[in-house]
Design brief:
With 335 residues, the protein is of the alpha+beta class. Helix content is 39%, strand content 24%. The protein has helices spanning 9-12, 80-97, 119-134, 141-151, 153-158, 199-209, 213-233, 236-255, 266-280, 304-312, and strands at residues 18-29, 34-36, 41-42, 46-63, 70-73, 76-77, 102-109, 163-166, 174-176, 183-189, 285-288, 295-300, 319-323, 330-332. The strands form 3 sheets. Strands 1, 4, 5, 6, 7, 8, 9 and 14 form an 8-stranded mixed β-sheet that branches. A 4-stranded antiparallel β-sheet has the order 11-12-10-13. Strands 2-3 form a two-stranded antiparallel sheet. Helix 2 (80-97) runs antiparallel to helix 4, helix 3 (119-134) packs across helix 4 (141-151) and helix 7 packs antiparallel against helix 8. It is globular and about 65 Å long. Bound molecules: ligand 2P0.
């Protein structure tokens, strides 16, 4: 039977476990590339907006009678790759808590998993917070962010709400205190199948083989600084321009990898054109795409419905979501 390795550990473990909720985030200035693969540190700075409309809820319960870690994702046993990453995070928490019990993990997304809607960001943020709580540990947010980052760099940012920055080489993200109430992210969902090349694999291949990686590595910090400065000045047009340049530079870098990595579908291109047309007609709207075909559009609260209606007319767009900025990851009671 598993045993407790520190005298006090057992007493702190809540028998009912701990449930946490984290929102996904979309980077305006993108992260793509690792400075330190072992420690999972980012090679370039990134800046994101946490989104209220996309969330993961995760329950973790350490159980003295469990014979193995059990992971349920959206109602079914998790596939081995995801389960192994989850066990690695649980092992870190067990070491910190001096606990040897196995855990039950029950996690669910309210949006399609692993399709480029940043499920690993909200997933590992919720898991980090729930696992610490279930082990009886209460850590400050920067330390929770570092734990989440060790599993998935973008998850470091989902610990915080609103705008969030993660510097190149940094262990944890930090909140950027800028008002988000006037902004919305409109998300055109173009498909729901899991992506063909995972983010980690995609960025490592890009680093190893793309002749444009060095250009990306030097451009990304400049774009990040420009975007962050424009945000602080309230120059939203400049924010939007920098945001589009960041995503297009990132995708250009990976298109030049060998073999090429291409996340765009015909619908992606059509939705980008739709956003450009909206802008030409005077509507504030700028796009960004991640490791998937969906198009996320930064706009203003009073323009969001118009942007949604236009995106709904793009052939191949299945569904359009409108999201305000979300809060940071938190412990929740029953779902
Ligand atoms: C981002 N993405 O800044 C970028 C833009 C996707 C495109 O962070 O290897 O799941 O687990 O650290 O965080 C997705 O990559 O990668 C990502 P790992 P992660 O949001």
């Amino acid at each position: 039977m598993p045993s407790v390795t520190k005298d006090s550990a057992e007493a702190r473990v809540p028998p009912a476990g701990c449930r946490a909720l984290a929102h996904s985030n979309i980077a305006l200035a993108k992260y793509w590339g690792k400075r330190d693969i072992e420690r999972n540190l980012p090679d370039v700075p990134s800046l994101s907006l946490t989104l209220a409309a996309l969330s993961t809820t995760t329950l973790v319960r350490f159980d003295p009678d469990a014979r193995a870690d059990e992971v349920t994702l959206n109602g079914a046993p998790a596939e081995e790759g995801a389960a192994a990453k989850i066990r690695t995070l649980l092992d870190r928490v067990r070491r910190e808590a001096g606990l040897a019990w196995h855990a039950q993990v029950i996690t669910g997304n309210d949006f399609p998993t692993a399709s480029g809607l940043a499920s690993s960001a909200s997933g590992f943020a919720a898991l980090a917070l729930a696992a610490l709580g279930a082990a009886g540990l209460s850590w400050p947010s920067p330390a929770v962010s570092a734990l989440a980052r060790a599993s998935s760099v973008s998850a470091a940012r989902s610990i915080f709400g609103g705008f969030v920055a993660l510097e190149a080489g940094a262990a944890q993200a930090e909140p950027v205190a800028i008002d988000t109430t006037a902004l919305r992210m409109v998300i055109a969902v173009t498909q729901t199948a899991p992506k063909k090349v995972g983010s980690t694999q995609g960025m490592l291949r890009t680093q190893d083989t793309s002749p444009y990686y060095e250009a990306w590595r030097s451009a990304a910090p400049r774009i990040y600084s420009e975007l962050r400065g424009a945000l602080a000045r309230g120059d939203l047009e400049r924010v939007g321009e920098a945001m589009e340049q960041s995503t297009l530079c990132m995708h250009a870098t990976m298109l030049a990898a060998a073999p090429a990595i291409s996340y765009f579908s015909p619908q992606t291109i059509a939705a980008m054109d739709c956003v450009r047309d909206l802008r030409a007609a005077g509507t504030f709207a700028y796009f960004t795409m991640d490791a998937g075909p969906h198009v996320k559009v930064l706009t203003l609260a009073d323009r969001a419905e118009r942007v949604r209606r236009e995106l709904e007319t793009v052939p191949g767009v299945h569904r359009v979501l409108v999201s305000a900025a979300g809060a940071g990851a938190r412990i929740v009671e029953e779902p």
